[in-house]
TrEMBL record:
Example GO molecular function: protein-disulfide reductase activity
GO biological process: response to stress
Origin: domain of life: Bacteria
InterPro entries documented for this protein: Thioredoxin, Thioredoxin-like_sf, Thioredoxin_domain, TPR-like_helical_dom_sf
Gene Ontology cellular-component annotations: cytoplasm
Sequence similarity: Belongs to the thioredoxin family.
Keyword terms, alphabetized: Disulfide bond, Electron transport, Redox-active center, Transport
Start and end residues of each Thioredoxin domain: 1-113
The species this protein was found in: Alkalispirillum mobile
Annotated protein name in UniProt: Thioredoxin
Disulfide bond recorded as keyword: yes
Length: 287
């Protein structure tokens, strides 16, 4: 049995209602199979996957021919697996054998309209894979489609900030209601702006790196270099520098190293693997 709304098991009791009458509402792909049929076991998972992916463009109806021999005989099934596509009460097309996924898609696309992928879902998959540049156009499209969705706006702002466009990110955040500004993504954007402002009063990156090489205990140079690294996307070395400050010089700047480290956590987001790693290391350093 299945709990999916896109897949159903067929018997003589529901063949009329679910296949013939059901095909008047949406195409029904009927898969005739049996437990002993190895090609059937290869084909069925692919059909189930496509039924879920097409999200209602068709319904998969599974017929166990060992248990439902009358249905198989009525349809005239001669070999397994046999798959027929029923629409408007009529057989529209059919095939036999275990087709590969690409051929199954081509078969379906001749007769049913595949649903368009949700740009927000696509964007979040790209963000999870680290492709922020690829995600931004999709997030912009999603925001155009859902102008009142604060989650979409925050996702877009955070991606823009991480790809070096803080002004655009801040403009989006400025349009949000006050309650949305407590979101960690908003805190991250504010942290990015604060880091940029701090750098305005510091020597250049190369000068700070030279100072630190000459004197590893130069906490000010180490902290400033970490800020440059964060804004350049070099997050792990920046976190190492800030953790060093927490461990060796917490008195500097009234525990400023720890404060900056927490701001970087906000900047990267709670789900970032580096945040989980360095939050644990920070806890160990403090306690």
């Amino acid at each position: 049995m299945t709990t999916s709304p896109h897949i159903i098991d067929i018997t003589m009791d529901n063949f009329q209602s679910e296949v013939l009458e059901g095909s008047m509402q949406q195409p029904v792909l009927v898969d005739f199979w049996a437990e002993w049929c190895q090609p059937c076991k290869t084909l069925m998972p692919l059909l189930e996957k496509l039924a879920e992916e097409y999200r209602g463009a068709f319904r998969l109806a599974r017929v166990n021919c060992d248990e439902q021999q009358a249905i198989a005989a009525q349809v005239g099934v001669r070999s397994l697996p046999t798959v027929i596509l029923v629409s408007q009460g009529q057989v529209l097309d059919q095939f036999t054998g275990a087709l590969p996924e690409g051929e199954l898609r081509r078969f379906l696309d001749q007769h049913v309209q595949a649903p368009q992928a949700d740009p927000l879902e696509q964007a979040r998959e790209l963000v999870a894979a680290g492709d922020l540049q690829g995600a931004i156009p999709l997030l912009e499209q999603a925001r155009s489609d859902r102008p009142d969705d604060q989650e979409v706006a925050l996702d877009l702002a955070h991606a823009l900030m991480q790809t070096g466009e803080p002004e655009k990110a801040e403009a989006i955040v400025a349009e949000l209601p006050d309650d949305a500004r407590h979101d960690p993504r908003c805190k991250g954007i504010k942290a990015h702006r604060a880091f940029s402002e701090q750098l305005a009063d510091l020597p250049g990156r190369d000068a700070l790196a030279a100072r630190l090489e000459q004197d590893p205990a130069d906490t000010e140079a180490r902290h400033g270099l970490a800020l440059y690294q964060v804004l350049a996307g070099e997050n792990e070395p920046a976190l190492e520098h800030l953790l060093w400050i927490v461990r060796h010089d917490r008195q500097w700047g009234d525990d400023r190293g720890r404060d900056t480290l927490l701001r970087v956590f906000d900047l990267l987001g709670a789900e970032d693997p580096l945040v989980r790693q360095y939050r644990s290391r920070l806890f160990q350093s403090l306690y």
